[in-house]
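User: Design a sequence. Structure:
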C-alpha cells in the first residue's frame, strides 16, 4: 500500500540529510544470546525489527538502550548488566556491543563489552534521552502489584494530570473515537500508583474498566519525549487492533519528524510493516545452524510467510493451465529461485479469460501485484505477457528436448533412455498437443504431473535461452517492486470470446466496476464480481 502522508513527510525530511544531529547509525552484537557479530543498521528514523520468537528482536532494543547514558542523568542509570544479567543458568562472558553514532558533525565508534565478569565501556558512553518501553506496559491495571487496594469507592482522587488539547486529539485520532477527557490520576490510598482515566459520551471510566488498548495508548502518550530522543518499543502492536496499529504508526511518524527522534520497534504485525517504507523493515532470519542474518526491505507478505506455516504471497501470477503453470515455475526455479515462494501461480482457463485479467492488471484493479501470462502461441494483449517459445508450452518443451535427443530427461524420471526417447517421440505423433504428456507418461508408467515437471525442469536448464528467461523474471521482479510497465502495444488482437461456461460475465465486464475483487476468490469468481 502507498505510504501515508505522515510517512512521506518524514521520508522527505530524512532524505534532506540535514536533520537528526543525534543519530545511532548501527549496533553490532557479538557473543550475546546467540548473536555472533551481526550488525543492525538504522536506515530510517523508524525501524521495525521483525522475526520469530527467540530470533533476537528484544536483544536489539536492549543493546540500543545500553549504548547511551541518560540525559539528563538519572539516579539509577541504565546499563547492559540490567538487560543481560548473570544468573545461575546464564553466564555472560566475552560479550561485545559495538556501535557507531553521530553527534553534530562528529562520528563516534565505540563498544560496551564484558570480557570477563564486568561490563566495560560505560563511562565512555555519550548522553542521550532513551525511552525504553517494554512489555511490562501490557499488564492490566487490576493485575498490577499494589493496585487492588485502589479498587475501592471509598478512596478519593487527590491529583490528576489531564491531557492537553494536542495530546487529547492525538489520543482520539489513534483510537478512532472522540474522547472528552484523558488524564492520569492518583488517590489518597497510594500517591505513587497512577491510574489512567478517560471520558467519552458523558461516561467516565478508569483503567480498571478500560480496554487494554485504551490503557496502552494513554500510558504511551502521557510520556514527554524530548527532542532527539531514542525511543524503543517492544511488540508495539500488542493489544491493538489493525486500524489502531496503523494510526499509531502515523502518529509516531509525525512525532518523529517534529522532534527528530529515532524509533526502533519490534513487531509481528503486517499492518505495522505496511505503514513503513522498505528501508525501515529489518527481518532477523535464523538458519538451521542458528546463525542469524538481518534482511532489510522485506515485504509484509514475506515476513508473515517466514513466521507462519501458511504462505503469504506477495504477487499473483496468472497462467492459462497447469502445464503453463509448471513451465513458469521451473523457469523461476532455474533463473530466479527467490521469487518462487513470493509468488502464487493461478491457472485461469482460456486465453479470453486471461485477456480480461490483463485488462484488470492494466487498470490496477487487483488488490496486490499481479502478472498475467498467455501461452506463447497467443497474440499480445493489454496487461499480459507471453510465455517463451512462441508456441504452446507442450510444443515448446517437447520440440526443444527432441532437438537435444532427450538427453538428461531419463535421469530426472528414473527410466531408461530408449524408453524415454520412444515414449516422448511417439506422443508427438498425436495431432492434439494437449495429449502429448499423458500419452508419454502412460508408456513410462508415470503420472503426467511427474513427467511434465521433469520435462520443464530439463528444458529450463538446457533448452531455454537465458535472455528469454531474464525478460520474464525481470518483469515479475518489476511488478513486485512497483516499477511502471512499458506501454502496451497500440494494436492488439481481439480477445477470444469468453463462454458462459468459462466465466459468468463477458470479458469486457472487467472495466465496468471499480470495486476490487475478493483476493480469496477463484479467478471466475473475481471476474464475476466485476
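Assistant: Done.
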Amino acid at each position: 500500500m502507498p505510504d501515508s502522508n505522515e510517512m512521506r513527510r518524514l521520508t522527505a525530511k530524512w532524505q534532506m540529510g540535514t536533520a537528526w544531529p543525534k543519530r545511532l547509525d548501527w549496533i553490532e552484537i557479538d557473543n550475546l544470546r546467540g548473536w555472533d557479530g551481526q550488525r543492525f543498521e538504522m536506515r530510517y528514523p523508524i525501524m521495525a525489527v521483525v522475526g520469530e520468537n527467540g530470533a533476537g528482536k528484544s536483544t536489539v532494543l536492549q543493546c540500543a538502550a545500553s549504548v547511551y547514558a541518560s540525559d539528563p542523568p538519572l539516579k539509577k542509570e541504565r546499563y547492559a548488566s540490567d538487560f543481560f544479567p548473570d544468573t545461575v543458568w546464564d553466564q555472560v562472558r566475552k560479550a561485545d556491543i559495538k556501535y557507531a553514532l553521530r553527534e553534530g558533525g562528529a562520528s563516534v565508534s565505540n563498544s560496551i563489552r564484558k570480557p570477563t565478569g564486568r561490563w566495560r565501556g560505560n563511562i565512555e558512553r555519550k548522553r542521550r534521552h532513551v525511552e525504553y518501553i517494554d512489555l511490562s506496559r501490557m499488564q492490566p491495571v487490576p493485575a498490577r502489584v499494589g493496585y487492588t487496594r485502589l479498587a475501592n469507592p471509598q478512596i478519593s482522587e487527590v491529583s490528576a494530570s489531564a491531557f492537553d488539547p494536542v495530546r487529547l486529539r492525538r489520543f482520539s485520532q489513534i483510537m478512532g473515537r472522540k474522547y472528552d477527557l484523558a488524564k492520569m490520576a492518583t488517590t489518597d490510598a497510594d500517591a505513587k500508583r497512577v491510574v489512567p482515566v478517560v471520558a467519552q459520551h458523558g461516561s467516565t471510566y478508569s483503567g480498571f474498566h478500560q480496554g487494554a488498548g485504551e490503557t496502552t495508548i494513554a500510558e504511551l502518550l502521557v510520556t514527554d519525549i524530548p527532542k532527539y530522543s531514542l525511543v524503543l518499543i517492544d511488540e508495539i502492536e500488542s493489544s491493538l487492533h489493525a486500524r489502531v496499529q496503523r494510526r499509531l504508526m502515523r502518529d509516531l511518524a509525525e512525532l518523529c519528524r517534529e522532534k527528530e527522534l529515532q524509533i526502533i520497534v519490534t513487531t509481528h504485525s503486517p499492518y505495522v510493516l505496511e505503514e513503513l517504507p522498505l528501508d525501515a523493515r529489518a527481518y532477523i532470519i535464523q538458519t538451521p545452524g542458528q546463525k542469524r542474518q538481518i534482511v532489510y526491505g522485506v515485504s509484509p507478505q514475506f515476513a508473515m510467510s517466514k513466521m507462519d506455516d501458511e504462505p503469504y504471497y506477495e504477487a499473483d501470477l496468472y497462467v492459462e493451465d497447469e502445464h503453463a503453470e509448471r513451465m513458469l515455475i521451473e523457469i523461476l526455479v532455474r533463473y530466479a529461485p527467490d521469487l518462487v515462494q513470493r509468488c502464487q501461480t493461478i491457472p485461469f482457463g482460456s486465453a479470453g479469460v486471461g485477456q480480461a485479467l490483463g485488462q484488470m492488471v492494466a487498470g490496477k484493479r487487483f488488490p496486490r501485484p499481479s502478472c498475467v501470462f498467455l501461452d506463447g502461441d497467443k497474440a499480445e494483449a493489454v496487461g499480459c505477457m507471453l510465455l517463451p517459445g512462441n508456441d504452446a508450452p507442450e510444443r515448446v518443451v517437447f520440440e526443444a528436448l527432441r532437438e537435444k535427443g532427450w538427453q538428461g530427461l531419463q535421469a530426472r524420471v528414473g527410466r531408461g533412455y530408449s524408453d524415454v526417447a520412444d515414449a516422448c517421440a511417439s506422443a508427438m505423433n498425436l495431432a492434439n498437443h494437449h495429449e502429448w504428456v499423458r500419452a508419454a507418461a502412460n508408456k513410462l508408467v508415470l503420472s503426467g504431473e511427474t513427467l511434465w515437471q521433469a520435462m520443464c525442469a530439463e528444458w529450463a536448464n538446457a533448452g531455454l535461452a537465458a535472455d528469454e528467461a531474464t525478460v520474464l523474471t525481470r518483469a515479475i521482479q518489476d511488478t513486485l517492486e512497483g516499477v511502471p510497465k512499458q506501454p502496451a502495444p497500440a494494436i492488439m488482437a481481439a480477445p477470444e470470446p469468453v463462454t458462459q461456461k468459462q466465466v459468468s460475465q463477458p470479458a469486457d465486464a472487467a472495466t465496468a466496476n471499480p470495486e476490487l475483487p475478493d483476493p480469496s476468490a477463484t479467478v471466475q469468481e473475481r471476474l464475476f464480481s466485476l
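Residues 5-129+225-306 form a domain with the Rossmann fold fold (CATH 3.40.50.300). Residues 487-495, 498-517, 526-530 have pLDDT under 50 and may be disordered.
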